[in-house]
Specification:
Elements (H helix, E strand, L loop, with lengths): L13 H22 L4 H23 L8 H19 L3 H13 L4 H23 L8 H86 L4 H25 L13 H16 L2 E6 L6 H22 L3 E9 L2 E8 L12 H11 L4 E6 L5 E8 L5
Parallel strand pairs: 1-2
Antiparallel strand pairs: 2-3, 3-5, 4-5
Helix pairs in contact: 1-2, 1-4, 2-3, 3-5, 4-5, 4-6, 5-6, 6-7, 6-9, 8-9, 9-10
């Protein structure tokens, strides 16, 4: 059977309070009242024994780990006092019955409880029998009541111990299941965090390094083709390659954590987008029209608008075969809108599930924004990114 832990020698709190109240009101006081009718010598001896056991009880209750009066010693002393009271008064069955909970509260395990409560029953019976002497009337009501109380106390105590053991086992099982659930939840959160971080890094690489390397490849091929025919254009393309490589290097430093996290030069969002659009027009030779309002927004929103612009222009360069591109940035009462259009070959939106569009949608969703893509084969493409006002400063 499960025993109470060593650091908790017996229950405390409300159980001790109710046990103390019951023992005093139903055990000590009635016995003390009964003593008042006894002869002088028996009265003083009985009151002395009651005061002694009451003081011992208070000491054990207040100082359960004191080195002198341990709980087991108190129960032995209680048994002797019950025997003395039984001898002096001719019986102490009621006092024994009220004191029975002590034998199950102050010790660990059912075996010492059974032994010590049996000792209390034996001294109670022996004290009463010793007073009246041996006679055929040994089975008096006092003795029978004491023996029956002992048997009932043992049965009830064993049942309570079994119930408590089952309760403790269930509690330990629930605690173990809770620990496992918490550990699995923590591991799931860790995996989710790792997956989210991998997705973020993949999106940043796609929106920065991958696009930069693609630009370098295109510019390098164009420069090699023009190296003999148009040296000035070749030189310009080589400068663009060098500039793109430097930007990629800066973005790589951001990704590995050796540079400020934004990786975007300071300035208004209009200035940032105009710089990107001008580079695109210079590298591709396409006609680009812009309407960029001077919109105030925080750094996170500015980066999101820049990445959407870079991704859209990269898609125009790789897929659209367009001649004209338009970039419009406006501020509305409900938020900021970025519109990018081209007159290229277009595509079927429902069949497009590339990483770039998915990444743009997720980036905008983090700011409670939205991305709308409108296109059809032969009619160009319109990309509209919206970020609500409540995401702004």
């Amino acid at each position: 059977m499960t025993e109470r832990p060593p650091n908790d020698p017996y229950p405390s709190g409300m159980l001790h309070l109710w046990n103390t109240i019951s023992w005093v009101l139903l055990g000590l006081l009635p016995t003390a009242v009964a003593v008042l009718d006894a002869q002088e010598a028996k009265k003083y001896w009985s009151l002395g024994l009651l005061v002694l056991i009451a003081l011992c009880y208070a000491i054990v209750l207040a100082l359960p780990r004191n080195p002198v009066l341990r709980p087991n010693m108190f129960l032995i002393l209680l048994s002797l006092v019950m025997g003395g009271i039984s001898y002096l008064l001719g019986g102490a069955a009621a006092f024994y019955v009220v004191s029975l909970p002590h034998f199950w509260i102050f010790v660990r395990g059912p075996r010492p409880s059974i032994v010590l409560s049996g000792l209390g029953a034996a001294t109670t019976v022996f004290g009463g029998t010793l007073r009246q002497g041996w006679s055929p009337q040994f089975l008096t009501g006092n003795n029978v009541f004491t023996v029956v109380a002992y048997a009932a106390g043992v049965a009830l105590g064993l049942w309570l111990h079994r119930f408590i053991a089952q309760h403790n086992a269930r509690t330990e099982q629930l605690a173990a299941e809770l620990d496992n659930a918490q550990r699995e939840l923590a591991e799931a959160h860790q995996r989710q965090g790792a997956a989210a971080e991998r997705e973020r890094i993949a999106r940043e690489i796609h929106d920065t390094l991958a696009q930069g390397f693609a630009s370098i490849i295109v510019l390098a091929e164009a420069a090699r083709s023009a190296i003999a025919a148009d040296a000035e254009k070749c030189d310009q393309q080589l400068l663009s390659i060098a500039q793109t490589a430097r930007e990629n290097f800066a973005e790589a430093r951001v990704l590995v954590g050796s540079a400020p996290q934004s990786g975007v030069a300071a300035g208004s969002v209009a200035t940032t987008l105009r710089r990107t659009v001008d580079r695109f027009a210079q590298d591709t030779g396409l006609t680009v029209t812009t309407e960029l309002a001077d919109v105030d927004c925080d750094q996170t929103t500015r980066i999101a608008l820049l990445r959407c612009t870079q991704e859209s222009l990269a898609n125009v360069r790789k897929h659209a075969a367009a001649t004209t591109v338009g970039v419009v940035l406006t501020r509305h009462p409900h938020g900021v809108e970025l519109e990018i259009t081209d007159d290229g070959r277009g595509f079927v939106v429902d069949e497009a599930n590339g990483f770039g569009l998915v990444g743009m949608r997720k980036r905008l969703a983090e700011l409670d924004g939205d991305l709308a893509v409108t296109s059809s084969v032969g009619d160009g493409t319109r990309v509209l990114a919206m970020i609500p006002t409540n995401s702004q400063d």
